[in-house]
Amino acid sequence: MEDRANKFLADCPRTILYSSEEFKDIGFIIRSAIDTELQFRDVLCNVDGRDYIYENDTCSDDCFGYKQMVWAKSTEVGCAKQKCPLSDGSKAYLSLLMCFYTPGDVHQAGRPYEQGSSCSKCSQGSGCMQNQCNAKISSRS
Hints:
The protein is α+β, with helices and mostly antiparallel strands. It has helices spanning about 1-10, 40-45, 65-70; strands at about 25-35, 50-55, 60, 75-85, 95-100, 125-130, 130-135. It has a single domain, classed as CATH 3.40.33.10.
């Protein structure tokens, strides 16, 4: 996913990929800033769910990024960032940071997870790490 995010940002895109067949099963978060280099920790650690209301699956404000980050069915994530020149010829730049998630749903229909105890619905043979299901990796000696 990181390679796909890097590839997408490499040409400093000015449009978002909602209608692209190549990205139909990929969810994403994108942030931008002018003359400020975005840092992964600043963007991803500041996505919060205070505006998301689980009971009726609504948002009191923008919670697109939150829903995508906690989307339970996503199994892969990859992020990239890019500095892009502005088209006005100035020295200013546009900083882009994007994360791809798969499987993803840009429409985010339905709740992003089922309520309950962490890891209570992990599949047989998987483990629980930091309150998330994970594949158990067998060690070889």
